[in-house]
Design brief:
The protein is α+β, with helices and mostly antiparallel strands. It has helices spanning about 20-35, 35-40, 85-95, and strands at about 10-15, 45, 65-70, 70-75. The chain has a single domain (about 5-95), classed as Glutaredoxin (3-Layer(aba) Sandwich). Helix 1 (about 20-35) crosses helix 3. It is globular. The two termini are about 15 Å apart. This is Small peptidoglycan-associated lipoprotein.
Length: about 100
Amino acid sequence: MRPEDDDKKLLFFSDEQDEHRESVYFDALIDLKQDFPEEVEDLEFVETSSDEDYPVDIDTFPSLVVVDDNRVLFQIEGHVGTKEEIINPVVKALSGSSGDR
């Protein structure tokens, strides 16, 4: 693992209301685990009832956020048509590159 990636973290916010909408996110996370096993393994799953303080305001669920030292690198929320709409920008955020996978 590269030292600059140590603080990058995935946060998944759920209101547990629409499992169908969340399934695209979970499919994307399964694919992302191949290239970023540690980041996906350390994914923080946050329910709407959580009292934790996070560096992002979430109004729409589900939401997936990539943070680096409490700075938001990428955020996607709500309905997503394909898992690629999640995977491609998350790969960019986690790898720190501007190129595709």
